[in-house]
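User: Predict the complex with inosinic acid.
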Amino acid sequence: MERYLPESVTVNQETFRVYLTHDEIQERIRMLGAKISEDYEGKRPIFIGVLNGAYIFLADLMRYVSIPCEVDFLKLSSYGAEKVSSGKVRDLKEVDANIKGRHIILVEDIVDTGLSIHYLYKKLEKFEPASIRVSTLLHKKEATRHDVQLHYTGFEIPNLFVLGYGLDYAQEGRNLAQIYILEGS
Ligand code: IMP
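Assistant: Here is the predicted structure with inosinic acid placed in the model:
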């Protein structure tokens, strides 16, 4: 079975071209996994993935981690069918695990304005975990307005809309095995 790796793809009548290849993404995640394994030796961290977008990145990241670890998920409201953030965050699913005293690695697909991560950091802090660090595959640094600290970043990217590898446009494109960017941008 082949992975879904077209050169370009049309979603919602807009065309996207490859920006980060499958191999580039895997190599970077392998490095992040190795660093996390080293930093959390003996600590049994719990990865908390932010649904929906982070599930593919988190699945790959965890399989490059070579120490005991756990996983849980929470869900926030998304962009809807738009390419710009609504500027509001709403909880759609809470974490099930007891995270008091635990080492948390919060996992996002992309940090854009930083609103979601800022909100989640504040929210999880109240449960008194031992530590919270953030891993994001992508970071639109120029777009980030909220105060966020990112510890394990895959790639810094320009302030442009991207798609694939878990990231959607109006719920389409998550199954693409690499990252695509709007053509002409
Ligand atoms: P933030 O709260 O503005 O940092 O936005 C974070 C969320 O917005 C991410 O988890 C994504 O769901 C979504 N998002 C931001 N930029 C993009 C993009 O370029 N493509 C698809 N989704 C995006």
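The beta strands are 8-11, 14-20, 46-51, 70-76, 91-93, 103-111, 131-139, 152-156, 162-163, 179-182.
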